[in-house]
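User: structure tokens for Probable chemoreceptor glutamine deamidase CheD, please.
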Amino acid sequence: MDEMIKVGMADLKVCPFPNAITTLGLGSCVGIAIYDPISKVGGLAHVMLPDSTQIRNNSNRAKFADTGIMDLIDLMVKAGATRNRLVAKIAGGAQMFAFSGQSDMVRIGARNVEASKLKLKELGVRLLAEDTGLNYGRTVEFYTETGDFIIKSVGKERKII
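Assistant: Done. Predicted tokens:
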């Protein structure tokens, strides 16, 4: 690995081989790692909300599952990935706080996961693995060399999906 590329909240970046890419503190947000296993071009989006069409101020396209995934794929293709080889792994989408009643605002994590899966399916990107839901935050690292998506959570064992 040459460099660990950092992706902020509501952000996305492409990660060329042999680098790795990380994002910290996924709570209800979802980290979507997309990868071309042949060219080894990877990318990671840290999405906060499911749907850009529901929000008036939606100029930050990386914030939303629908537009963030589309933009990431476009950038990856420009960087040498082949669209029909792309595969994905996702993590996050936790319900960080316990509330009685399941209003849509409370279910933001689950809605982010659903929206991410739907957009990947719509774009023909196969979802290989996920570590989503529950009630704890995650930090993720994606390695272009192996395709490993490593999930770290406080007080939990490190997971590789």
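User: Anything notable?

Assistant: The domain at 4-160 is CATH 3.30.1330.200 (60s Ribosomal Protein L30; Chain: A;).
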